[in-house]
Sequence to fold (286 residues):
Amino acid sequence: MKPVVMSTLTGVMVLVMLLAGCTMPELPGQPPATLLTTPPPTAVPPERTQLTGTSWTLISGLSGTGTWNVLPGTLITATFGEDGRVSGSAGCNNYFASYQSRTNTLSIGTPATTRMTCAEPAGIMNQETLYLSNLEGAATFAIDGGLLMIYDSTGKTLLTYREGIPEPTPLSFEGTPWSLGRYKAADGTMTAVLPGTTVTALFTGGNLTGSAGCNSFFGNYSLQGENGISISPLGTTLMFCGEPGVMDQEAAYLGLLPSAAKYGISGAQLTLYDAAGMPILEYSGS
Fold:
């Protein structure tokens, strides 16, 4: 029995010693030992170059058949922000993308865009496709005499801009087809229209017509003083659309229109306000 007892005691002592070895003894007069940890990475802001904080208007671009000039009546812009994003108008849709530049090098990520389709002028959507493709192909740039040139990796000039962005000429309230972007919801917030629905308004000579998303509507309006407006109760066709939310959106829209008391236009954007001066409907024009 004695050898068994001695063996057991020896095993226990070895185990205690091993466990003791897993801790770091503290020396007299010394602070407790602490584990070293890796500090969290610090965000590095984009390197500031000649491009940072500048805005440009496109003059021309490169295609497979040569150079093309921006179509008359269209505006293509680029603003290189402090946050490492480039954004602007591609002629029909707005876009944004990430960018990096150092000295004269430039790389631009794949642009994200809104999803409108513009029919006029002819070729505008093809122009937009060419522009966004050229933008993504950027490799270097140069600024000279108020012009910005963006080149590809072989040195070909992809895009040429002039400095600055002109103030857009406001569209006419009457005669412009307006497409609704956001409306005032029951909770008071401005809510985007449902994807896949088209809600419109056309003001012409006192007659108001359009689509409420499912049904067509019609009515009358009158302009009063400086940007004042009064809209009569509206009539509609009597269709039913079963897609989720479409009829609720339509009811909200048709209820908001007669409550409009004032309008404002900035460039291609129309906003209708209620009597308290709060925005209730926001449109884009074409």
Summary: The longest helix spans residues 2-21. The radius of gyration is 32 Å. The chain has two domains: 54-163, 178-285.
